[in-house]
Amino acid sequence: MDNTRQMGTRRFGRVNWLGMTTLAERETRRFMAVWSQTVMAPLITAVLFLAVFGLALGTRRGEVMGVPFLNFIAPGILMMSVIQNAFANTSSSILVAKVQGNIVDTLMPPLSAGEMLAGYLAGALARGLLVSLPVLALMTAYLGTGLAHPVWLALVLVLGSVLMGSLGIVGAIYAQKFDQMSVISNFVITPLTFLSGTFYSIEVLPPVMRALCHVNPIFYLIDGARYAILGVSDSSPWIGLGVCGAASAGLCALCWYWFRIGHRLKP
């Protein structure tokens, strides 16, 4: 009986767990190797945001939606840290590999498109959740905020990491050089983040701007985090869950398809 396998035959069963977990471990070790930049830097940024707004406005700003102003913006700062780092993890990993020409090291192993997607998203999820822990601890210690809905917060953090991790993959596959990724980051990610109700309630916006906020998935992530921590929100948390879930599913489907056909990855 001939036991030889034809070229291209999978030897790992329906799911290559070894390859997928190895890719996820590589993505995690990659950002942990520079933990001072990937974990400590977001914490320092959060401290600076709270310190600047606290010193500039203090108690003069008054309450927003029934809570002190610093408590109001703290969940948004938390989610900003999570989504920015989840996006950076996948986008930098793939783009650097493309520019340096070693993306082939990821494409050649027997990994399906779904397994590659899961491995990259696992790294983004690990970085997003790891960044959230010190920022959340800072908020609890400095502002005395509790957790109105802990399970909802965990769900929002996971969904935000997946959404922005998959968006980072899309951006990195599309971009061919660092300048193009900078354009995506500066003119897409940053405006969507700062125009998402992080530092204000969208009820103070003109009707047109308010309507635009309601089609911004990042608004629902920040609003969901505010609901989970403070128990107040600008919109229904369930609507936000549906919008972010649909956006994540659509981006993941696009990532899977581009991985499958090697779009802008293979020469």
Give an overview of the whole structure:
Strands 1-2 form a two-stranded antiparallel ribbon. Helix content is 72%, strand content 1%. Helix 2 packs across helix 5 (113-143) and helix 6 packs parallel to helix 10 (237-261). With 267 residues, it is an all-alpha fold. The protein has helices spanning 17-32, 35-56, 69-100, 104-107, 113-143, 150-174, 178-194, 207-213, 217-230, 237-261, and strands spanning 63-64, 67-68. The protein is elongated. The model has no long low-confidence stretch (mean pLDDT 89).
Short description:
Helix content is 72%, strand content 1%. The protein is mainly α.
Average pLDDT for all residues: 89
N-C termini distance: 39 Å
Secondary-structure content class: mainly alpha
Q: Into which percentage range does the β-strand content fall?
A: under 5%
- Radius of gyration from the alpha-carbon trace, in angstroms: 20 Å
Shape: elongated
Which short descriptors sum up this protein?
267 residues; 2 strands; 72% helix
Write the layout of secondary structure elements.
Blueprint: H1 17-32, H2 35-56, E1 63-64, E2 67-68, H3 69-100, H4 104-107, H5 113-143, H6 150-174, H7 178-194, H8 207-213, H9 217-230, H10 237-261
Antiparallel strand pairs: 1-2
Helix pairs in contact: 1-5, 2-3, 2-5, 3-5, 3-6, 3-7, 3-9, 5-6, 5-10, 6-9, 6-10, 9-10
